[in-house]
Amino acid sequence: MTDPLSTQRAYYNAIAGEYDSSYSSPYALLYRKELFADILKGVALGGIRVLDMACGGGQNSLFFKEHEAEVVGLDISDAQCAIFRRRFTDSAVVTGSMTAMGFADASFDMVVTESLHHSHPHLDQCLAEVHRVLKPGGRFLLWEPECGSAFDRARKLWYRLDPQYFQDNEASIDIDLVLKAFEGKAVVDRLQYGGNLAHLFVLSSMHFRIPPAAVKYYARPLMAMENMLNKLNSRLFSMWVLCVLRKEASLNTDGTS
């Protein structure tokens, strides 16, 4: 029987360079920077310890490093970790799984990820690990493809038609299941839905085989259009869900008070 972790590692090792070139392009980075700046508005980031879970080459880490946070990376791919290490020579990065991270209990002020959809069918185990490593009062920022939206069926079809960039253990996230897993253990700080043209053709241009150098010619108008459409967006018509959960300050890592 094929080990899904080995398959995932081999897959991301194989596409590491292409993935990093696309997702680290200036406008792809600007796309996520604007989202994070908005949803974390008012949250003090300077000096906090952040775990970038399934970090890739550190695209999310760049935002937190710019705000003077201490960042630690974790990724299943040796090649992605090598890119992260070259990009952030002053930050630690660990090759490992989201389901068994190996960090001490209550060791991070924040965990950030956009890769829970790679944890299927081990989502519950991954979420338990996130809760364990978060300090009381710590935050969990997740940004994931939204299950149940009108676009989710198209995404599933896309998975089948394009196996080069999609794996069998990928499944969009039902935010209700995540919230249920944290019920009594964390509260929702913020929750929003969004994503349309810029998400597809700026952030995810790799999947359309669009060269990163070409993105600059249309990125700004698509991002402006998406920002306007997001104001009218709902869960049904979103491509992603962005959520910040805050661990209850009085709870231990196992959820007891």
UniProtKB/TrEMBL annotation:
GO terms for molecular function: methyltransferase activity. Keywords: Methyltransferase, Transferase. The keyword Transferase applies. One of its GO terms (biological process) is methylation. Residues 51-141 form the Methyltransferase type domain. InterPro entries: Methyltransf_11, Methyltransf_Superfamily, SAM-dependent_MTases_sf. Signal peptide: none annotated. The keyword Nucleotide-binding does not apply. SUPFAM superfamilies: S-adenosyl-L-methionine-dependent methyltransferases. Gene3D superfamilies: Vaccinia Virus protein VP39 (3.40.50.150). Pfam families: Methyltransf_11. CDD domains: AdoMet_MTases. This is Class I SAM-dependent methyltransferase. It comes from Magnetospirillum sulfuroxidans.
